[in-house]
Amino acid sequence: MPTPISGLHAIKQPEVILLSPEDQKLFVQALLSPPERSPALQRAFARRQDFERYLQAIPNVPDKADKC
Q1: How many CA atoms lie within 13 A of 16 on its CB side?
Q2: Fewer C-beta within 10 Å: the chain N or C terminus?
Q3: In whole angstroms, what is the distance from residue 10 CA to residue 13 CA?
């Protein structure tokens, strides 16, 4: 079983992914023109907004910056 230190080391190691020129083009196109949000993603955003409103209604809950 890995030790916690080795786990942290694995997280901190940068990873470089080499893409072919065609894959680079597809990646950039996906970033510049993302697909429409699926119904499932729209529902997830709505649930998140509902949850944030719920948290704001509770007294003494830190604001968003403190939750992250």
Answers
A1: 1
A2: N
A3: 5
